Amino acid sequence: MKLYIINGPNLNMLGIREPDHYGTTTYRDLVGLIDEHCKSRGVTSVCYQSNHEGDLVDKIQEAYFEGADGIVINPGAYTHTSIAILDAAKSVMLPLVEVHISKVEEREAFRQVSYIREYAEKTITGKGIQGYIDAINYLIDRFDK
Ligand code: DQA
Question: Mean per-residue pLDDT for 34-54?
Answer without folding.
Answer: 98
